[in-house]
Write a structure and sequence with these properties.
The chain has 15 helices and 3 strands. By secondary structure, the chain is mainly α. A 3-stranded antiparallel sheet has the order 1-2-3, with no helix packed on it. A hairpin with an 8-residue loop joins strand 2 and strand 3 (23-28). Helix 3 packs antiparallel against helix 9 and helix 11 runs parallel beside helix 15. The longest helix has 42 residues, at 347-388.
Protein backbone atom coordinates (compact mmCIF):
# COMPACT_ATOMS: atom_id res chain seq x y z
CA UNK A 1 0.00 0.00 0.00
CA UNK A 2 1.43 3.36 -1.06
CA UNK A 3 -0.13 6.54 0.39
CA UNK A 4 0.84 10.03 -0.79
CA UNK A 5 -0.62 13.12 0.87
CA UNK A 6 0.16 16.47 -0.73
CA UNK A 7 -1.15 19.94 -0.03
CA UNK A 8 -4.63 19.38 -1.51
CA UNK A 9 -4.81 15.75 -2.64
CA UNK A 10 -4.57 12.21 -1.28
CA UNK A 11 -3.42 9.28 -3.44
CA UNK A 12 -3.67 5.64 -2.34
CA UNK A 13 -2.29 2.85 -4.52
CA UNK A 14 -2.46 -0.91 -3.85
CA UNK A 15 -0.52 -3.34 -6.04
CA UNK A 16 -1.47 -6.95 -5.36
CA UNK A 17 1.36 -9.40 -5.93
CA UNK A 18 1.05 -11.07 -9.33
CA UNK A 19 -1.36 -8.49 -10.76
CA UNK A 20 -0.32 -6.43 -13.78
CA UNK A 21 -1.78 -3.10 -12.68
CA UNK A 22 -2.30 -1.49 -9.26
CA UNK A 23 -5.56 -0.09 -7.98
CA UNK A 24 -5.21 3.64 -7.38
CA UNK A 25 -7.61 6.15 -5.81
CA UNK A 26 -7.21 9.93 -5.77
CA UNK A 27 -9.19 12.42 -3.69
CA UNK A 28 -8.80 16.19 -4.07
CA UNK A 29 -9.55 18.54 -1.17
CA UNK A 30 -11.44 21.47 -2.66
CA UNK A 31 -11.92 23.63 0.42
CA UNK A 32 -9.81 23.56 3.57
CA UNK A 33 -12.31 24.09 6.40
CA UNK A 34 -10.98 23.05 9.83
CA UNK A 35 -13.44 21.01 11.88
CA UNK A 36 -11.73 19.69 14.98
CA UNK A 37 -14.86 17.98 16.32
CA UNK A 38 -15.12 15.88 13.17
CA UNK A 39 -11.37 15.30 13.26
CA UNK A 40 -11.68 14.10 16.84
CA UNK A 41 -14.35 11.58 15.83
CA UNK A 42 -12.16 10.39 12.94
CA UNK A 43 -9.18 9.84 15.22
CA UNK A 44 -11.39 7.83 17.56
CA UNK A 45 -12.59 5.74 14.60
CA UNK A 46 -8.99 5.01 13.59
CA UNK A 47 -8.32 3.85 17.14
CA UNK A 48 -11.38 1.57 17.02
CA UNK A 49 -10.26 0.10 13.68
CA UNK A 50 -6.86 -0.67 15.17
CA UNK A 51 -8.70 -2.33 18.04
CA UNK A 52 -10.45 -4.79 15.69
CA UNK A 53 -13.60 -3.05 14.34
CA UNK A 54 -14.99 -4.87 11.29
CA UNK A 55 -15.12 -3.21 7.86
CA UNK A 56 -18.91 -2.83 7.65
CA UNK A 57 -19.11 -1.10 11.03
CA UNK A 58 -16.18 1.15 10.12
CA UNK A 59 -17.87 2.20 6.86
CA UNK A 60 -21.11 2.98 8.69
CA UNK A 61 -19.31 5.02 11.35
CA UNK A 62 -17.35 6.88 8.66
CA UNK A 63 -20.53 7.85 6.79
CA UNK A 64 -22.03 9.15 10.04
CA UNK A 65 -18.94 11.27 10.72
CA UNK A 66 -18.87 12.69 7.17
CA UNK A 67 -22.46 13.89 7.50
CA UNK A 68 -21.86 15.63 10.82
CA UNK A 69 -22.70 19.34 10.55
CA UNK A 70 -20.30 21.94 11.86
CA UNK A 71 -20.68 22.24 15.63
CA UNK A 72 -21.39 25.99 15.76
CA UNK A 73 -23.62 28.36 13.83
CA UNK A 74 -22.01 30.96 11.57
CA UNK A 75 -22.98 33.76 13.97
CA UNK A 76 -21.10 32.04 16.80
CA UNK A 77 -18.00 31.71 14.62
CA UNK A 78 -18.14 35.41 13.68
CA UNK A 79 -18.43 36.49 17.31
CA UNK A 80 -15.61 34.12 18.31
CA UNK A 81 -13.33 35.70 15.71
CA UNK A 82 -14.16 39.15 17.08
CA UNK A 83 -13.44 37.95 20.61
CA UNK A 84 -10.03 36.76 19.43
CA UNK A 85 -9.15 40.37 18.60
CA UNK A 86 -10.51 41.43 21.98
CA UNK A 87 -8.17 38.94 23.62
CA UNK A 88 -5.23 40.46 21.74
CA UNK A 89 -6.11 43.96 22.91
CA UNK A 90 -6.40 42.74 26.53
CA UNK A 91 -3.06 40.98 26.08
CA UNK A 92 -1.51 44.32 25.11
CA UNK A 93 -2.98 46.10 28.13
CA UNK A 94 -5.53 48.17 26.19
CA UNK A 95 -8.05 50.38 27.95
CA UNK A 96 -11.75 49.41 27.99
CA UNK A 97 -12.57 51.89 25.22
CA UNK A 98 -9.91 50.37 22.93
CA UNK A 99 -11.14 46.87 23.77
CA UNK A 100 -14.66 47.91 22.76
CA UNK A 101 -13.47 49.55 19.54
CA UNK A 102 -11.34 46.50 18.75
CA UNK A 103 -14.41 44.29 19.10
CA UNK A 104 -16.40 46.52 16.72
CA UNK A 105 -13.61 46.63 14.12
CA UNK A 106 -12.98 42.87 14.32
CA UNK A 107 -16.70 42.12 14.15
CA UNK A 108 -17.02 44.25 10.99
CA UNK A 109 -14.03 42.47 9.45
CA UNK A 110 -15.36 39.03 10.39
CA UNK A 111 -18.83 39.79 8.99
CA UNK A 112 -17.26 41.08 5.76
CA UNK A 113 -15.12 37.99 5.35
CA UNK A 114 -18.05 35.68 6.14
CA UNK A 115 -20.17 37.42 3.48
CA UNK A 116 -17.39 37.13 0.91
CA UNK A 117 -16.96 33.44 1.77
CA UNK A 118 -20.64 32.83 1.02
CA UNK A 119 -20.08 34.47 -2.38
CA UNK A 120 -17.11 32.10 -2.95
CA UNK A 121 -14.67 34.99 -3.23
CA UNK A 122 -11.04 33.73 -3.07
CA UNK A 123 -9.50 34.03 0.36
CA UNK A 124 -6.78 36.37 -0.91
CA UNK A 125 -9.37 39.07 -1.68
CA UNK A 126 -11.20 38.29 1.56
CA UNK A 127 -7.98 39.00 3.46
CA UNK A 128 -7.64 42.32 1.61
CA UNK A 129 -11.19 43.26 2.58
CA UNK A 130 -10.67 42.29 6.23
CA UNK A 131 -7.45 44.26 6.52
CA UNK A 132 -9.05 47.26 4.83
CA UNK A 133 -12.13 47.31 7.08
CA UNK A 134 -10.06 47.03 10.26
CA UNK A 135 -7.70 49.82 9.16
CA UNK A 136 -10.55 52.15 8.16
CA UNK A 137 -12.02 51.84 11.66
CA UNK A 138 -8.62 52.56 13.21
CA UNK A 139 -8.03 55.58 10.93
CA UNK A 140 -11.49 56.93 11.81
CA UNK A 141 -10.72 56.56 15.53
CA UNK A 142 -7.39 58.33 15.02
CA UNK A 143 -9.11 61.18 13.17
CA UNK A 144 -11.71 61.57 15.93
CA UNK A 145 -8.94 61.69 18.52
CA UNK A 146 -7.01 64.29 16.52
CA UNK A 147 -10.17 66.42 16.37
CA UNK A 148 -10.36 66.42 20.17
CA UNK A 149 -13.53 64.36 20.38
CA UNK A 150 -13.92 62.39 23.59
CA UNK A 151 -13.43 59.53 24.40
CA UNK A 152 -11.09 59.05 21.44
CA UNK A 153 -8.42 61.47 22.64
CA UNK A 154 -5.14 59.87 23.68
CA UNK A 155 -5.96 56.28 22.70
CA UNK A 156 -3.76 54.04 20.53
CA UNK A 157 -5.65 52.96 17.40
CA UNK A 158 -2.64 50.93 16.30
CA UNK A 159 -3.73 48.22 18.77
CA UNK A 160 -7.00 47.90 16.81
CA UNK A 161 -5.16 47.08 13.60
CA UNK A 162 -2.62 44.87 15.35
CA UNK A 163 -5.48 42.85 16.87
CA UNK A 164 -7.08 42.56 13.45
CA UNK A 165 -3.81 41.26 12.00
CA UNK A 166 -3.68 38.48 14.58
CA UNK A 167 -7.36 37.76 13.83
CA UNK A 168 -6.69 37.26 10.11
CA UNK A 169 -3.38 35.44 10.56
CA UNK A 170 -4.69 33.07 13.26
CA UNK A 171 -5.80 30.45 10.77
CA UNK A 172 -2.53 30.33 8.87
CA UNK A 173 -0.67 27.04 9.05
CA UNK A 174 2.76 28.32 10.06
CA UNK A 175 3.38 25.36 12.35
CA UNK A 176 2.04 22.86 9.82
CA UNK A 177 4.24 24.28 7.05
CA UNK A 178 7.34 24.14 9.24
CA UNK A 179 6.49 20.62 10.36
CA UNK A 180 6.08 19.40 6.76
CA UNK A 181 9.36 21.03 5.73
CA UNK A 182 11.22 19.44 8.65
CA UNK A 183 9.65 16.02 7.94
CA UNK A 184 10.81 16.20 4.32
CA UNK A 185 7.42 16.71 2.62
CA UNK A 186 8.70 19.50 0.39
CA UNK A 187 5.70 19.68 -1.97
CA UNK A 188 3.16 20.05 0.82
CA UNK A 189 5.38 22.46 2.75
CA UNK A 190 5.84 24.57 -0.39
CA UNK A 191 2.09 24.70 -0.97
CA UNK A 192 1.40 25.71 2.62
CA UNK A 193 4.10 28.38 2.61
CA UNK A 194 2.86 29.84 -0.70
CA UNK A 195 -0.71 29.87 0.61
CA UNK A 196 0.46 31.48 3.85
CA UNK A 197 2.43 34.11 1.92
CA UNK A 198 -0.48 35.02 -0.34
CA UNK A 199 -2.92 35.35 2.57
CA UNK A 200 -0.45 37.49 4.51
CA UNK A 201 0.10 39.68 1.47
CA UNK A 202 -3.67 40.07 1.25
CA UNK A 203 -3.78 41.45 4.79
CA UNK A 204 -0.80 43.71 4.04
CA UNK A 205 -2.43 45.11 0.89
CA UNK A 206 -5.72 45.75 2.70
CA UNK A 207 -3.96 47.62 5.51
CA UNK A 208 -1.83 49.67 3.12
CA UNK A 209 -4.88 50.63 1.05
CA UNK A 210 -6.69 51.71 4.22
CA UNK A 211 -3.71 53.77 5.41
CA UNK A 212 -3.27 55.41 1.99
CA UNK A 213 -6.98 56.20 1.81
CA UNK A 214 -6.73 57.91 5.18
CA UNK A 215 -3.70 59.88 4.00
CA UNK A 216 -5.53 61.03 0.86
CA UNK A 217 -8.48 62.18 2.97
CA UNK A 218 -6.12 63.99 5.35
CA UNK A 219 -6.36 61.50 8.22
CA UNK A 220 -3.06 59.91 9.18
CA UNK A 221 -2.09 57.58 11.98
CA UNK A 222 0.91 58.37 14.12
CA UNK A 223 3.80 55.91 13.99
CA UNK A 224 4.02 53.96 17.28
CA UNK A 225 7.16 54.81 19.23
CA UNK A 226 7.36 51.30 20.74
CA UNK A 227 6.17 47.83 19.74
CA UNK A 228 3.33 47.83 22.30
CA UNK A 229 4.65 45.40 24.91
CA UNK A 230 2.37 43.11 26.88
CA UNK A 231 0.25 44.62 29.62
CA UNK A 232 -0.01 43.49 33.27
CA UNK A 233 0.59 39.78 33.78
CA UNK A 234 -2.99 38.87 34.87
CA UNK A 235 -4.34 40.59 31.77
CA UNK A 236 -1.79 38.78 29.61
CA UNK A 237 -2.94 35.37 30.86
CA UNK A 238 -6.61 36.35 30.53
CA UNK A 239 -6.10 37.67 27.00
CA UNK A 240 -4.16 34.56 25.96
CA UNK A 241 -6.92 32.30 27.30
CA UNK A 242 -9.59 34.28 25.40
CA UNK A 243 -7.54 34.02 22.20
CA UNK A 244 -7.01 30.26 22.56
CA UNK A 245 -10.67 29.61 23.32
CA UNK A 246 -11.78 31.76 20.37
CA UNK A 247 -9.43 29.94 17.97
CA UNK A 248 -10.68 26.57 19.21
CA UNK A 249 -14.32 27.63 18.80
CA UNK A 250 -14.05 28.84 15.20
CA UNK A 251 -12.19 25.64 14.39
CA UNK A 252 -15.22 23.68 15.61
CA UNK A 253 -13.60 22.19 18.71
CA UNK A 254 -15.50 20.61 21.56
CA UNK A 255 -15.29 21.45 25.25
CA UNK A 256 -12.31 19.16 25.91
CA UNK A 257 -10.13 20.72 23.20
CA UNK A 258 -11.22 24.21 24.28
CA UNK A 259 -10.11 23.60 27.87
CA UNK A 260 -6.80 22.08 26.77
CA UNK A 261 -6.16 25.01 24.41
CA UNK A 262 -6.74 27.49 27.24
CA UNK A 263 -4.38 25.53 29.51
CA UNK A 264 -1.66 25.38 26.86
CA UNK A 265 -2.00 29.10 26.18
CA UNK A 266 -1.19 29.75 29.85
CA UNK A 267 1.85 27.46 29.53
CA UNK A 268 2.94 29.33 26.38
CA UNK A 269 2.71 32.71 28.10
CA UNK A 270 4.44 31.33 31.19
CA UNK A 271 7.37 30.07 29.13
CA UNK A 272 7.57 33.33 27.20
CA UNK A 273 7.49 35.39 30.40
CA UNK A 274 10.18 33.26 32.03
CA UNK A 275 12.44 33.53 28.97
CA UNK A 276 11.89 37.29 28.78
CA UNK A 277 12.85 37.62 32.45
CA UNK A 278 16.13 35.92 31.53
CA UNK A 279 16.69 38.64 28.87
CA UNK A 280 16.37 36.24 25.93
CA UNK A 281 15.55 37.63 22.49
CA UNK A 282 11.76 37.77 21.83
CA UNK A 283 12.12 35.19 19.06
CA UNK A 284 13.91 32.79 21.44
CA UNK A 285 11.34 33.50 24.16
CA UNK A 286 8.50 32.82 21.69
CA UNK A 287 10.18 29.58 20.62
CA UNK A 288 10.50 28.44 24.24
CA UNK A 289 6.84 29.17 24.95
CA UNK A 290 5.76 27.30 21.81
CA UNK A 291 8.06 24.38 22.64
CA UNK A 292 6.57 23.94 26.11
CA UNK A 293 3.00 24.13 24.82
CA UNK A 294 3.73 21.70 21.99
CA UNK A 295 5.55 19.22 24.22
CA UNK A 296 2.74 19.10 26.79
CA UNK A 297 0.13 19.19 24.01
CA UNK A 298 1.56 15.96 22.54
CA UNK A 299 1.11 14.22 25.88
CA UNK A 300 -2.45 15.46 26.36
CA UNK A 301 -3.88 15.45 22.82
CA UNK A 302 -3.54 11.69 22.31
CA UNK A 303 -6.13 10.99 24.99
CA UNK A 304 -8.52 13.41 23.25
CA UNK A 305 -8.02 11.63 19.89
CA UNK A 306 -6.82 14.81 18.18
CA UNK A 307 -3.49 15.75 16.58
CA UNK A 308 -1.40 17.84 18.94
CA UNK A 309 -1.17 20.54 16.26
CA UNK A 310 -4.90 21.18 16.78
CA UNK A 311 -4.41 22.31 20.37
CA UNK A 312 -0.90 23.73 19.93
CA UNK A 313 -1.93 26.13 17.17
CA UNK A 314 -4.59 27.74 19.35
CA UNK A 315 -2.09 28.02 22.21
CA UNK A 316 0.62 29.88 20.26
CA UNK A 317 -1.66 32.38 18.50
CA UNK A 318 -1.25 34.88 21.40
CA UNK A 319 2.41 35.26 20.41
CA UNK A 320 1.72 36.02 16.72
CA UNK A 321 3.58 39.34 16.15
CA UNK A 322 0.68 41.44 14.89
CA UNK A 323 1.99 44.67 16.40
CA UNK A 324 5.39 44.30 14.72
CA UNK A 325 3.73 43.64 11.36
CA UNK A 326 1.58 46.75 11.63
CA UNK A 327 4.47 48.89 12.83
CA UNK A 328 6.49 47.77 9.81
CA UNK A 329 3.64 48.67 7.47
CA UNK A 330 3.30 52.11 9.06
CA UNK A 331 7.04 52.63 8.68
CA UNK A 332 6.73 51.83 4.98
CA UNK A 333 3.87 54.31 4.58
CA UNK A 334 5.81 57.06 6.37
CA UNK A 335 9.12 56.32 4.59
CA UNK A 336 10.54 58.74 2.06
CA UNK A 337 10.15 56.29 -0.80
CA UNK A 338 13.87 55.70 -1.39
CA UNK A 339 15.46 52.27 -1.36
CA UNK A 340 17.28 52.96 1.91
CA UNK A 341 14.07 54.17 3.55
CA UNK A 342 12.17 51.06 2.47
CA UNK A 343 14.96 48.82 3.81
CA UNK A 344 14.90 50.64 7.15
CA UNK A 345 11.13 50.39 7.24
CA UNK A 346 11.36 46.64 6.67
CA UNK A 347 13.22 46.04 9.94
CA UNK A 348 9.99 45.60 11.91
CA UNK A 349 8.65 43.18 9.30
CA UNK A 350 11.88 41.19 9.49
CA UNK A 351 11.56 41.18 13.28
CA UNK A 352 8.01 39.82 12.93
CA UNK A 353 9.20 37.15 10.49
CA UNK A 354 11.93 36.01 12.90
CA UNK A 355 9.37 35.65 15.69
CA UNK A 356 7.09 33.66 13.38
CA UNK A 357 9.91 31.28 12.51
CA UNK A 358 10.74 30.97 16.21
CA UNK A 359 7.13 30.00 17.00
CA UNK A 360 7.06 27.40 14.24
CA UNK A 361 10.46 25.98 15.21
CA UNK A 362 9.58 25.73 18.90
CA UNK A 363 6.26 24.03 18.15
CA UNK A 364 7.89 21.56 15.75
CA UNK A 365 10.68 20.74 18.21
CA UNK A 366 8.10 20.18 20.95
CA UNK A 367 6.35 17.63 18.72
CA UNK A 368 9.61 15.77 18.11
CA UNK A 369 10.57 15.71 21.79
CA UNK A 370 7.09 14.85 23.02
CA UNK A 371 6.28 11.98 20.64
CA UNK A 372 8.86 9.46 22.01
CA UNK A 373 8.02 10.46 25.57
CA UNK A 374 4.34 9.79 24.89
CA UNK A 375 5.17 6.43 23.30
CA UNK A 376 7.25 5.47 26.33
CA UNK A 377 4.49 6.44 28.76
CA UNK A 378 1.91 4.48 26.76
CA UNK A 379 4.21 1.43 26.68
CA UNK A 380 4.71 1.54 30.44
CA UNK A 381 0.96 1.94 30.99
CA UNK A 382 0.12 -1.04 28.77
CA UNK A 383 2.79 -3.17 30.48
CA UNK A 384 1.37 -2.37 33.91
CA UNK A 385 -2.14 -3.14 32.71
CA UNK A 386 -1.07 -6.53 31.38
CA UNK A 387 0.81 -7.23 34.63
CA UNK A 388 -2.33 -6.49 36.70
CA UNK A 389 -4.42 -8.82 34.51
Amino acid sequence: MQVDVTYNSITVSFHLSGEAWPETLVRVVRVAAPDHAKLQRMQALVSDIRGGMDLASARTAFRVIRRMPFRYQQSVVVVARALLAVGVSILLGASPIIVGLTFIAALCAAITQAALARLRVPLFFSQIAGGFVTTVVAVAVSALGAAGIEPFVGIRPSIIVASGIVLMLAGLTVVGAAQDAIDGFALTAGGRILDLTMQTLGVVIGILVGLELGTVLGFTMELPVDPAPFGPLPGVFAGAAIIAVAVAVFNGAGSGIILVSALLSAITIGGYTLASALNLHPAAASALGALLASFIGVLIAHNLHVPSVAVTTAAIVPLVPGVAVFQGLLEMVHSGGGAADVIDAGSSLSYAAVIGVGLASGASLGLYLGTPVRATVEGVTRARSRARR
